[in-house]
Amino acid sequence: MTLAGCSLCAISSPFVQAGGLLLYEIGTADTGLASAGYTARAQDAATVFTNPAGMTRLDGDQVTVGLQALYGRSSFEVDPSGTSPRLGMNGGGNAIGWLPGGGVFYSHSISPDLKIGVAATGNFGLAVKYDNDWAGRYRTQEATLMGISLVPAAAYRINENLSIGASMNIMRGIFKTKVGINNLIGSDGQLELSDNVWGLGGNLGLLYEFDPSTRVGLNYNSQIKLDYSAQPKWNGIGRGLNTLLGATGLNNARVDLGVTVPQGVNVGLYHDISPQMAILASVGWQQWSKFGEVDVGVDSNNPISLTTNRDFKDTYHAALGGQYRLNQRLMLMSGIAYDSEFQDSNNIGPAIPTNDTWRFGVGAQIEESKVMNWGINVEYMYAGSLKTNLSGVSPIVGARGNLKGEYKQPAGILFLGLNLNYKL
Asked: H or E stretch including 76?
């Protein structure tokens, strides 16, 4: 591989590896259910986001506030048998750690059958940060890809059984990546890219109530295209590589990246078994194969464009949970969910240290009055042991080498949520 080719890999690889998740956890009671019945529960104003049609079940004006803390654990162990020796044995430390989250949701009644609402939350993305000198530094040191959404919505009850809803997803996409640059002699350099852009999508929702004890909800969310464009910031680049970048125009290039937030469908069920107990379930699909098609363009004196396909897979989701009203004031809940893998479990990119996941949630809602209740919930998302075996040119100037290893400790994320629901 030429030095120019190595430089291009340094530019494109953070984008190709940067990934995200569409999380069900936004600080609401759904976390305690592990997302079971996500589109059918419609018991608070969070339905503005999960299924806008569910607003027709809410009386008057209601607001829900969710606060969430996320703690992720991701510990990589380098395998010396397949890792280029010069890269060392540093596993990078815990790449995830603590992240905040949550949302605000509001539903307003124009009439008993016509509702409008708005949600402000973020459920797309992930951020990782490794030690700068870890073995995979020439692939990822730091990567952030997140979306914060403002979602205006409307719903209408067509008859006593059927309600429809729709919303816009106005997403602010946040992108940042840092990757080490191999100078071969001396300390590493670094490439940094960052940009914030707007994207627009839509959601369609249906809610069908067979009777007061049983309902089914369906929500479709469209894909959202985030078109990033960043000016590379090169730091600590050796003289030879800096000369080459200047000759090819890559040091002053703008790098364009097209990322697609996947479309998806979720169908949920809510059913009262008795006055004290209800079961909730859901199934879903997300088009992660489309997210894997990353469009990269380099606008320089020698323009280059390419499309890289990470061969991601569409994912499938299933969840089952229950609610139990212990007394008039306290309701308990729990749930379990599974999401299928979206990448090869034996070749995990270090910017996305997760794949197929199991979720286990528990929670409680406390009625303080006729107009106010609050809840607390805990969920553990388990991603299992993940392997990495990435090939590259043996370390020469600008090259990345081979990286092999495994996230030995079970990779997982713990969610802690607190929500408040108030009828205005």
From this structure: none
For the chain, the domains span 3-423
Contact 423, 61 (CB under 8 A): yes
User: Is 13 within 8 Å of 139 (Cβ atoms)?
Assistant: yes
The first and second tokens of residue 189, run together, are: 């350099």
Spell out the residues 6+ positions from residue 327 whose beta carbon is closer than 8 angstroms to its own.
none
Q: What is the spatial distance between Cα 303 and Cα 294, in angstroms, rounded to a whole number?
A: 17
pTM: 0.90
DSSP assigned state of 56: G
Contacts with 103 (C-beta within 8 Å, 6 or more apart), sequence order: 26, 27, 28, 46, 49, 65, 66, 119, 120, 121, 122
Helices (H), 208-350: 239-248, 288-291
Residues 6+ apart with CB under 8 A from 44: 28, 29, 58, 62, 64, 105, 419, 421
Q: Is the CB of residue 324 less than 8 Å from the CB of residue 277?
A: yes
CB 242 within 8 A of CB 1: no
pLDDT above 60 for 16: no
- Could you read off the pLDDT of 96-146 as tens digits, one per residue? 889 999 999 999 999 999 999 999 999 998 888 999 999 999 888 998 889
Query: Can you state the percent helix, strand and coil of the chain, rounding each to 5?
Result: 10, 55, 35
Question: Cα–Cα distance between 113 and 57 in angstroms, integer?
Answer: 9
Which pLDDT value is given to residue 308? 56
DSSP label of 7:
H
CATH architecture of 3-423: Beta Barrel (2.40)
Work out whether strand 403-423 and strand 372-390 pair parallel, antiparallel, or are unpaired.
Answer: antiparallel
Give one DSSP letter per residue of 26-37, joined into a string: SSSGGGGGTTTT
Residue 158's DSSP bridge partners are none
Structure tokens at 413: 């994320």
Distance CA 420, CA 125 (A): 24
